[in-house]
Design a protein that fits this description.
GO cellular component, one term: cytosol
Number of helices: 11
Radius of gyration: 21 Å
Distance between the termini: 22 Å
Number of strands: 12
Pfam families: HTH_1, LysR_substrate
Strand content: 15-25%
Mean pLDDT: 86
Low-confidence stretches: 304-309
Number of domains: 3
InterPro entries: HTH-type_LysR_regulators, LysR_HTH_N, LysR_subst-bd, WH-like_DNA-bd_sf, WH_DNA-bd_sf
CATH topology of the largest domain: D-Maltodextrin-Binding Protein, domain 2
Protein name: LysR family transcriptional regulator
Family: Belongs to the LysR transcriptional regulatory family.
Length: 309
């Protein structure tokens, strides 16, 4: 590594890289930070390595359970958080000089999308447009598109499935996520690099209510009518049952926090439908709400997937 060069830092390090560094510290894993910031894991690793080269010192300590800030990284973290706090203050002060956009906006989405993705984006939008009143509706995936089509929501953010009727909405791709298998530590499946859905059906499969439709469709493709033994409505409950040895479950990767890695095993689900494509829905044939347009623009103003690098 070289020595610290202030001018080189200003010219070469962008805000995304600094934000990615903060996310890596908070998530304790570069891969989860990449999901949070919607870029490829390889790109995230390269950006942080480049940041360390510019700083001339190791900023993250790597270990088998993830990453943690080094002494130098802790100093950088303090200053970077101050930078982002100042940016938020600046945005709020500038907004106070103008009326800005005002009105009410209703957003419908599912918990598995709100928690890891849009909650933070909605918070940033709210700070930028303080006169906007938000109504956030937590809806099961199948009901999100219906809410938008019926005019009960201005925007819906949902996971695409083949049975959804999209005739009443216009949709735009937002981001992708993966479904993974969560199994008890020491389980025979935990030793495999990937598992199939058929492998999981041979176990006691714990299915969260929101995923029952997808699981039933996948089961029928195998000629099986599946009925879960346990009825749970949250990912946290499902993972707790897995940890207690009741069975296995399927969860979006973005909901599996780093702390769970020491309690359960996460294995790749090798199925085409394990790629979760998340889209934004807006009403078709009606004049778009200007607030909704502004929010969609912000949601889509994400760094491009730079996996080609």
């Amino acid at each position: 590594m070289g020595t610290f060069n202030r001018l080189h830092l200003i010219r070469q390090v962008d805000l995304l890289t600094l934000k990615l560094f903060v996310s890596a510290v908070e998530e304790q894993q570069i891969g989860l930070a990449a999901i949070r910031e919607n870029i490829a894991a390889s790109t995230a690793t390269k950006r942080i390595q480049d940041l360390e080269d510019i700083a001339g010192v190791k900023l993250l300590e790597r270990g088998p359970k993830g990453v943690a800030p080094s002494q130098a990284g802790t100093v950088l973290l303090r200053y970077v958080r101050r930078i982002f706090d100042n940016l938020d203050d600046m945005r709020a002060e500038i907004a106070s000089f103008t009326e800005g956009i005002r009105g009410e906006l209703t957003v419908a989405s599912a918990r598995s999308i709100i928690v890891p993705f849009i909650a933070r984006e909605l918070g940033e939008f709210k700070r930028e447009y303080p006169l906007v009143e938000f109504v956030v509706r937590e809806v099961e995936n199948a009901g999100i598109v219906q809410a938008v089509a019926r005019g009960e929501a201005d925007i819906g953010v949902f996971a695409v499935t083949h049975e959804l009727d999209l005739s009443g909405v216009d949709v735009t791709p937002y981001r992708t996520d993966r479904l993974v298998a969560v199994v008890p530590q020491g389980h025979q499946l935990s030793k495999q690099s990937s598992v199939s859905f058929a492998d999981l059906l041979n176990e006691n499969l714990i299915v969260v209510h929101a995923m029952r439709g997808a699981v039933r469709v996948a089961s029928r493709r195998l000629g099986i009518e599946f009925e879960p033994r346990h009825n749970v409505s949250s990912a946290g409950v499902a993972v707790s049952l897995v940890e207690a040895g009741f069975g296995v479950t399927i969860q979006p990767e973005c909901l599996v926090s780093h702390e769970l890695f020491s309690r359960v095993s996460v294995v790749e689900l090798a199925e085409p439908w394990a790629v979760r494509r998340i889209h934004i829905a807006m009403p078709r044939g009606r004049e778009q709400n200007p607030i909704a347009r502004a929010l969609v623009h912000q949601l889509l103003d994400q760094p491009a997937d730079e996996s080609a690098e």
